[in-house]
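Give me structure tokens for this 177-residue protein.
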Amino acid sequence: MIPRGGALVALMDFLEQHLPNNKIGSLSINRITRMARLILDTNSFAYNNAYYKQSRGGAMGSALTQVLANIYMYKWEQHLIKHQGSHKQIYGRLVKNIYKQINFDITIKNENEQLKTSMYHKPATGTYILSYASDHPRYIHQNIPHATLLRATRIFFNVYDLNSERIRIDMSLLMNN
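Here you go.
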């Protein structure tokens, strides 16, 4: 959730930086900011036959809230991006449901100053890969072991973790015929 005040300040700064004549059509930056504040301050919703006024953040799924969140994060990230470039660090930000959703299948951890990677497995699927009895073309079934092992070799940093995943893959393949 973005703070309303911070989002409005970031919006004003962003518009001042990127609008050549401080206007969009006939709308001044001040008027745009006031309209954004009005929208944020008048957000309401219904729940269990009662109406509520939203007092913090913005409405989920609102086009304005998404734009304000991106502008706020853009301002917030600038110092961090400059810092990470000079210190050989990586910074990334996951943005969900704004343009498209990216599903990551890797977990990266720092355990006692050691990089630890693991592959995500859906809890609902367990050891299931693809039933050999399915009607998929034969080449799909033939590619499963290769594709699954290739994915694991790209994800795992530690050879022991890779071997554990290989054993898990072997067991899954055996259980699925």
